[in-house]
Structures are given as C-alpha cells and as structure tokens.
C-alpha cells in the first residue's frame, strides 16, 4: 500500500527537510511503532498499578508518596493522551492528526515532561527538609503536600502553554511522527525561557537538596542519635529518589542536547534517525518509575506482593498457603496487616477473635513525623 504524506505548507517540520517523502524506511516506521506500543503498555500498566496500590492501602498515604503519585500521574498522562498519536502515525508512516493534533501532542508531552522533572525536584525538597530540617518537615501535612502538587502543575502549565498561544510553535520533528517545540526556527526567547524553567531551576533545586542531604547524612553517621533518626527505610527512599532523578536525566539528556543544538547550531542536515532516536529514548522514561518504586520502596513492594499472591506474606518470612486466602484480607500476618492499613485481629481471654483498633500499632510502626 502506498504511504501518503501531507504537504509542507500544511504542517511544518522542524530541523531536517520536507514532508513530501518518507523520512524512514517502512521497516524503520514499523520498529518505531513496536517500540512505542511496548513503552505505552508498560507505562500505563505500571503507573496504573502504583495508583491503584496507593488508593487501596492506607499505609501508603503519606507525604512523600503523594509526590511520587504525582509523578506517576504525569507519566500516565503522556502514555494515554500523547504516545498513542505517535504510535498510530508510526504505523501509517506519517503524521495523521493535522496541525491541531500536532499542537495537542506537543503541548501534552511538554506539559507532562515538565511536571515530571518539577515533581522530582519537589520530592528532592521534601527529602531535604526531612533529613536536614526534620522539625520543619513535620509541619508538611497532606493538605500542604497537595498544595505543592498543585503548584507543580501550574508551573508546568506556564512553561508548556506559550507555543499554543503564539509564543513559538509546535511542529513535527524527527521522522515526522511526533511533534515538539520548534527548536530550530521558533522563538529564541521562548527557547531560553523553557530551558530555564525545565532544566536550570529544577536541576538547581535537585543539586542543592541532595548536596545538603549528603553533607547532613555524613554528619549524622558520627552520632547514634542521627543514625536512629535517619533509619534504613528513610535511606532507601532517599536513594530511590536519587535513582529516579538519574534515570530521568539519562533518558532526557540526549533530547536536551539535540534541542540545544537545533536552537543554537544547525540540525538541518542531521539524518532523520539521529533526530528521532533521542525523542523515542526520552519517551521510555514514563515506564521506568514504577519499576524503581517496586524495587526500592519496601511498602509498595509489599503491597504489590500481596496484591499478586493473595496469601500469607511477610518480609523475610515464608508462610505456607491457606484455604480461601483472599477472603476479607484475613490471612495477613499482624505486622503486615498494620503496615497495609487493615484492622488488626486479637484474641480475647475467651479465645474469640474480635477486631482491635489499629491506631496504636500503626503509631508504633510509623512515629509522628515519619513520612516513609
């Protein structure tokens, strides 16, 4: 079947050439489509599981997890509202959704990408206050965390919306199956503005936060009180956020370098494959965070294990299968029931089981001010 392409007058393309012919071979577009389908599936499934676990288990309802959930929402927005457009266009071998669709795709990807990096910066600040200024961190309630999350989205909207309003523009890029800001011939002032908003400010916050955390942890290691305050679980959450930040930067750095080269150099003669791969590599960042959560966040991993196995489970302890294991979540051991927010059962003197308030147990597991 012949592949048709829109004319250059209908839809501009950034950087490398015209739309009047294909930019990749048919097999190249097929590989792009398969790659995007895998990324989209993993991102939607992984982030949806994280959101479901947060909604299902009360023990996950704390300040730091609100910030992590915010990043998951940003990831799933791209996977649901943006990636399918590029996937369908890769299957067809050209952009299918016209100028309005290009603007929508470019806005969604820019908006959500900004929300991801600003969300990571917000988690970095939370870790900074938790480790360096713990008494200040205790004042951050759930309501305060939600206000901070709202600010990250308002900030991202300010950064991503201008091209849709006429300050620069969204155009096709790479192989002609995705859209982004017009880095090459668009507004230089907006290019400078968005790089400051998306890279300079968030990265400055992240570097400052973790440099202070590192200095404080070294000081705390010299005293027993500091060691108790910065528990193993706190260290693992801090390490997890660092891994998230590094993964995000590794994913997006090639695209950022290409965008800078396009804005201040000459990318017109770069092969389409070279201008396509960095954008495709960056899109995979939406699928990484759920894997990081399940590998490095103990509570998310415990909740997922129970969700998948529906049997008695406790960290470092294997308990044999039971009959009707999922009924009313009654088979959970007491410590895990408390961690996951279920009522705790206790035996009375007469041997009859009755529900016991779990507040005191959870308070002992999660002392005031703890956010992990």
Structure description:
The longest helix is centred in the N-terminal third of the chain and has 35 residues, at 98-132. Helix content is 65%, strand content 5%. The chain is globular and about 60 Å long. The protein has helices at 26-56, 63-81, 83-92, 98-132, 134-137, 142-160, 188-220, 224-229, 232-264, 272-283, 285-296, 298-309, 334-340, 359-365, and strands spanning 170-173, 178-181, 313-314, 317-318, 344-347, 353-356. The strands form 3 sheets. It has a two-stranded antiparallel sheet. It has a two-stranded antiparallel sheet with strand order 3-4. A two-stranded antiparallel sheet has the order 5-6. The termini are far apart. The relative contact order is 0.13. The chain has 372 residues and is mainly α. Keywords: Chromophore, Disulfide bond, G-protein coupled receptor, Glycoprotein, Membrane, Photoreceptor protein, Receptor, Retinal protein, Sensory transduction, Transducer, Transmembrane, Transmembrane helix. Residues 46-293 form the G-protein coupled receptors family 1 profile domain.
Summarize the structure.
The chain is mainly α and 372 residues long. It has helices spanning 26-56, 63-81, 83-92, 98-132, 134-137, 142-160, 188-220, 224-229, 232-264, 272-283, 285-296, 298-309, 334-340, 359-365; strands at 170-173, 178-181, 313-314, 317-318, 344-347, 353-356.
């Amino acid at each position: 079947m012949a592949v048709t392409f829109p004319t250059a007058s209908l839809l501009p393309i950034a950087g490398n050439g015209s739309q009047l012919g294909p930019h990749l071979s048919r097999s190249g577009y097929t590989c792009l489509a398969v790659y995007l389908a895998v990324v989209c599936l993993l991102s939607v499934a992984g982030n949806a599981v994280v959101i479901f676990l947060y909604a299902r288990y009360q023990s996950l309802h704390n300040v730091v997890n609100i910030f992590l959930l915010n990043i998951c929402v940003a990831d799933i927005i791209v996977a649901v509202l943006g990636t399918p457009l590029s996937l369908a266009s890769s299957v067809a071998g050209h952009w299918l959704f016209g100028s309005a669709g290009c603007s929508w795709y470019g806005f969604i990807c820019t908006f959500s990408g900004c929300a991801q990096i600003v969300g990571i910066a917000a988690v970095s600040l939370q870790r900074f206050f938790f480790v360096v200024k713990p008494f200040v961190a205790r004042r951050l309630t759930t309501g305060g965390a939600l206000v901070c999350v709202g600010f990250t989205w308002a900030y991202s909207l300010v950064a991503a919306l201008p091209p849709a309003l006429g300050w620069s523009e969204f155009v096709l890029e790479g192989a002609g199956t995705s859209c982004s800001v017009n880095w090459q011939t668009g507004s230089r002032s907006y290019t400078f503005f968005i790089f400051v908003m998306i890279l300079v400010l968030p990265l400055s916050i992240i570097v400052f936060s973790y440099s202070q955390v590192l200095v404080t942890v070294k000081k705390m290691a010299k005293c027993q009180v500091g060691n108790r305050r910065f528990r193993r679980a706190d260290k693992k959450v801090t390490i997890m956020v660092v891994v998230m930040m590094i993964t995000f930067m590794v994913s997006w750095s090639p695209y950022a370098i290409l965008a800078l080269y396009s804005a201040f150099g000459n990318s017109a003669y770069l092969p389409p494959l070279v201008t396509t791969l960095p954008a495709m590599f960056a899109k995979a960042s939406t699928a990484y965070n759920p894997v990081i959560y399940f590998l490095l966040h103990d509570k998310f991993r415990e909740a997922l294990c129970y969700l998948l196995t529906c049997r008695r489970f406790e960290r470092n302890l294997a308990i044999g299968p039971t009959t009707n294991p999922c009924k009313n979540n009654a088979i959970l051991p007491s410590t895990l029931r408390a961690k996951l927010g279920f009522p705790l059962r206790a035996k009375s003197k007469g041997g009859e089981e009755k529900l016991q308030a779990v507040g005191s147990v959870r308070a002992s597991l999660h002392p005031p001010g703890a956010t992990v």
